[in-house]
Design goal:
alpha+beta; 44% helix
């Protein structure tokens, strides 16, 4: 994530895997339950055996189809999930079909935190939390907001943090959950 590189930069393959798994995990879980049910033929009473032998493969096909559809949605989201560093601001683009682009001037950045839970550490990903302060002329107190970049490859997350901190010249902070 070198800030001298122009154009939007993606966040790594682990981000793609986490986006797909995060979206398709219910369908995968349902498919695993169906496989277990299908492997245990004595589980159903005799009069339901024919119905279960027809219904289980149909439901399994539906689960596989839904998993593939959701995986395609995760890939679309990954394709649009990127960051762009400019001289005065950075831009974050995200979304599957409804793509949003957030531009933040470096002067509005209050802090950049790389946060990793235990599961994130095992997966090799991090969440980047960017706290920003927006100044409104009408308000006496500035409004604080957070932008969270979920499931970013750990090396890419540190590079994003370093690139933003270099431009804003604020202190680096890492949080590791235990």
């Amino acid at each position: 994530m070198d800030d001298s590189i122009k154009g939007y930069q993606r966040f790594g393959r682990r981000t793609l895997v986490m986006l797909i798994l995060g979206k398709s995990s219910p369908a995968i879980l349902a498919l695993l339950i169906l496989i277990v049910l299908f492997a245990m033929p004595g589980l159903f009473p005799e009069n339901y055996t024919m119905v279960s032998s027809i219904a289980l493969p149909i439901v399994a096909f539906v689960c596989i189809f839904i998993s593939l559809l959701v995986s395609a949605g995760g890939w679309l989201e990954y394709r649009n999930y990127a960051i762009f560093f400019d001289e005065n601001n950075f831009k974050i683009r995200r979304g599957a079909l409804n793509v949003e682009e957030i531009g933040v001037p470096y002067r509005h950045v209050k802090e950049v935190v790389v946060k990793r839970s235990i599961i994130d550490q095992l997966a090799g990903v991090s969440n980047v939390i960017i706290s920003i302060v927006q100044d409104d002329d009408d308000r006496p107190v500035a409004k604080k907001e957070e932008i969270v970049l979920f499931s970013i490859d750990q090396a890419a997350a540190v590079q994003i943090q370093d690139a933003i901190l270099r431009k804003t010249e604020i202190e680096k902070m890492d949080i590791v959950s235990k």
